[in-house]
Amino acid sequence: MSSMTAAPSPFSPAERPQLGLRERKKIKTREAIRTATYGLVEEQGYDATTIEQIAERAEVSPSTVFRYFPTKEDIVITDEFDPIIMEELRARPADEPWMVTLRFVMRKAIQFGLKEDQEISRLRSHLMVQVPAVRARMMESMSVTGTMLCQAIADRTGRDPESLEVRVHAMSIVAGLMEASLYWAENGHRGEFSDLVERAMDVLEHGLTD
């Protein structure tokens, strides 16, 4: 059985200054906790996996696990992509059509994520379908992602990030990505996830078409 490891940042440019020792240690600890969790869940299932087991395998204390991840569900759903994706959205040309920008950044994120840890992507989407607590926590986290996306949309369009229109659009994007992930898992992970996301983007851009 192959080892599951957390993916590094997909978009960090080579010239970005090196992180300090403290920050590198924090990232290493987070990755160790996630890797331990993925491995245990793969071996024995989600419900049977305890925080104590995760801590032991990650070689940290249970309190450290909780310091990084308030709940077991957070270990599964948390990744480092949100702030990086927002950074990439803002880095695109200001005159580029919004949906072109969105598709470019989503495609880049998906290509990296599936290339580096396809097993984790499948496991996470499977748990979203099979474990109500994971799905519920994921839906809660969508509001945070949606708020960040509202600001990115506002920066691009000049609209009020708190306006109903921006909020609806942002949450439609986040919900579309979540539904694409659920659909992928519900259908045995057949086909390419990137194709499903493109279909979701088509609906967001054009609505239901014949």
Give a brief rundown of this model.
The chain has 210 residues and is mainly alpha-helical.
3D structure, described in words:
With 210 residues, this protein is an all-alpha fold. 72% of the residues lie in helices and 0% in strands. It contains ten helices and no strands. Helix 6 packs antiparallel against helix 10 and helix 8 packs across helix 9. It is globular. The termini are far apart. The N terminus is likely disordered.
Helical percentage: over 70%
Q: Averaged pLDDT, please?
A: 84
Give the radius of gyration: 18 Å
Order of helices and strands: HHHHHHHHHH
Number of strands: 0
What structural class do helix, strand and pairing data support? mainly alpha
Strand count, sense and barrel status of the largest sheet are: none
Number of helices: 10
N- to C-terminal separation? 44 Å
Shape: globular
Unreliably modeled segments: 1-17
Note the beta-strand portion.
under 5%
Describe the SSE topology.
Layout: H1 21-44, H2 51-58, H3 62-68, H4 72-77, H5 81-91, H6 98-116, H7 118-130, H8 132-157, H9 164-186, H10 193-206
Helix pairs in contact: 1-2, 2-3, 5-6, 5-8, 6-10, 7-8, 7-9, 8-9, 9-10
